[in-house]
Amino acid sequence: MTTDILVLNGSPRRESESAFLAERIAGAAGYAFESAALYTRRIRPCTACLACAETGRCVLDDDDMGALRRRIHEARGLIVASPLHFTSLSAPVVALFSRLEPDWLAYNASAGRTAPRPHAGAAALAVAGGSDRRGMFEPARRVAAAAFATLRRVNLGVAAAANTEAVAVRENRIALGQAERIGGALRITLDGMRG
Ligand SMILES: Cc1cc2nc3c(=O)[nH]c(=O)nc-3n(C[C@H](O)[C@H](O)[C@H](O)COP(=O)(O)O)c2cc1C
Question: What is the pLDDT of residues 21-31, one digit of tens each?
């Protein structure tokens, strides 16, 4: 059976702040969800062979990306959870996004069509950072937005918990409010895709 919402958990931590936020989004959406822990999976980064430009398929078949790709394509709701690591998304998330090259080539080929292809669902980013600086989530937001567009997902935005060194996400009313709002929008999107 296909899961409605897939959480891609890009945190290496057992008590993850970003995964907590992602699950809040899924909970607020009110649909069944499952999580895939990226740190326990092998995800090789794209090697830029560009074989996918000829075949539409990735030649790397000795890791977990094939199974993950299928789950990503099947899930109508996608939530990426990631800590900030050196100002960006964590390494497995970036590796996974690099492997969306076949999807990007298909997305790019469809650009400029008069009749846009319908969206394949919705996506959101749940991100946590230890510091508290203006614009600190901007690199992560932009990278995730590119991935979501590639996957033809409506981008529902970012739930972001800053200053986790001082304030745990479960006490961060701003971040929790963002998660609730995104979850509500996700519910509306998934309701609209029913049937
Ligand atoms: C290797 C590493 C790099 C980090 N880089 C940043 C950073 O650039 N900016 C920041 O605000 N926090 C940074 N942090 C702190 C984490 O983003 C923070 O602890 C976050 O809440 C962890 O989220 P998680 O529990 O979901 O993994 C870094 C932590 C680690 C381990």
Answer: 999 999 999 99
